[in-house]
Design brief:
This protein has about 400 residues and is an alpha/beta fold. Helices cover about 40% and strands about 20% of the residues.
Length: about 400
């Protein structure tokens, strides 16, 4: 039967009915170890008691009121994000793309309010992914996402990742900001070295530019700090977050300093659903867990263990795994075999992993994964790698026999 869903996804032939911790349970009862977290969304796994309690409590009171009225849950969550970050202001959205839209508008409005409306252009980096709206696909600059959607939205200048000469050449009188992911996700789990983030901060300051971070995928504890840029010791002027902050409930946010957001005055931006009581109640429950003493330190410890075991796996299967990269529990296997084949075989071994650019497989497990579950994950990944070795050996044997 033809699905009524728009056919923009090649969905795997498996139906998950429930989740427990880091495990997904399919309709046939098979359990899958989830190393994808719904593309980094389910930061606290499935059926987390704190999130369930927050959802049930707020769901029994008030789901939605619109942003025309006071919202204590949103006020509380915004205040906690401000207290835990560089920011002075927060605008809640439903998704990462919407958070990026707000960040882009905030940067442009800042310069307009400063008397320089011509400074609307933003420098971005090749391999970036900032969302699927017309503005964010233009910001990402990847042709496969731009194809067929008409003229590219103006205002974005892509430069090669790590090319400082190209970056300097791209800065002109119309440049207003620099937008970058501290760790590229879709682009292949490519971290920006802390020294490079510090250099970008200096370049932005020297040229009167706003520095904008996209932490939609790498933020909210994913790297072992609340936000990935904290490892560099510097802060942006504007930052977009989403995914993990809702723990599976649609929630995003654009954070900014008071100065950077000065152009966003009454009526300049809005949202119907963004920051409603239900979403922000869950967001507060997420922060209750992630900001609890010792939680982020445990993420760092488990990340170190996972990376060490993956490095051992690389040494064991050098013809399959070329490199292990990433930060915290945002890890990637750069492969010598086709990453989509690896993803498919992993699913057959009841492991959920995600393909990314640069022939990488992403590993984004829930932050609550245990050491025992990490051991199971590595064993499963090894079993998948073994299938490629066995297949290659069989092909070589066939060739020798034919010869």
């Amino acid at each position: 039967m033809t699905s009524p869903l728009l056919p923009t996804y090649a969905r795997a032939d498996v139906i998950f009915e429930k989740g427990e911790g880091v495990w997904l349970v399919a309709r046939d009862g098979q359990r899958y170890l989830d190393l994808g977290s719904g593309i980094g969304v389910n930061a606290l796994g499935y059926s987390h008691p704190a999130l369930l309690a927050a959802l049930a409590e707020q769901g029994g009171k008030l789901w939605h009121i619109s942003n025309l009225f006071q919202n204590p849950q949103a006020e509380r969550l915004a205040g906690r994000l401000v207290d835990a970050s560089f920011a002075d202001t927060v605008f809640f959205t439903n998704s990462g793309a919407e958070a990026l839209e707000c960040a882009i508008k905030t940067a442009r409005k800042y310069h307009s309010a400063d008397g320089h409306p011509e400074r609307y252009r933003i420098i971005t980096f090749e391999g970036a992914f900032h969302g699927r709206t017309l503005a964010t696909i233009a910001a990402g600059g990847q042709q496969k996402y731009l194809e067929g959607f008409g003229p590219k939205v103006d205002g974005f200048d892509q430069v090669p990742f790590g090319d400082w000469q190209a970056l300097a050449a791209a800065i002109g009188p119309q440049t207003g900001g620099i937008l970058i992911e501290p760790v590229q996700g879709e682009g292949g789990i490519r971290p920006v070295p802390p020294a490079d983030l510090r250099r970008l901060r200096q370049i932005a300051d020297d040229n009167g530019l706003l520095l904008i971070f996209d932490e939609v995928q790498c933020g909210v504890g994913r790297t072992g700090k609340l936000f990935a840029h904290e490892w560099s010791g510097i802060a942006p002027d504007i930052m977009a977050i989403a995914k993990g902050i809702g723990g599976g409930f649609p929630l995003g946010a654009s954070l900014a300093t008071r100065e950077a957001s000065k152009g966003m005055t009454l009526g300049t931006h809005g949202t119907t659903f963004g920051g409603n009581p239900l979403a922000t109640a869950v967001g507060n429950a997420v922060l209750d867990v992630i900001l609890a003493p010792g939680f982020l330190e445990s993420v760092q410890e488990k990340a170190g263990l996972f990376r060490q075991r993956l490095a051992e796996l690389k040494d064991r299967y050098p013809d399959v795994i070329a490199d292990v990269r990433g930060e915290g529990l945002m890890l990637g296997l750069k492969l010598k075999v086709l990453n989509t084949d690896f993803v498919r075989k992993a699913l057959a071994h009841r492991l959920v992993v995600i393909a990314a650019g640069d022939n990488v497989v992403r590993l984004l497990p829930p932050l609550i994964i245990s050491e025992a579950e990490i051991a199971e994950a590595v064993a499963g990944l090894g079993a998948v790698a073994e299938t490629f070795v066995t297949h290659a050996d069989a092909e070589n044997a066939d060739e020798r026999h034919a010869g």
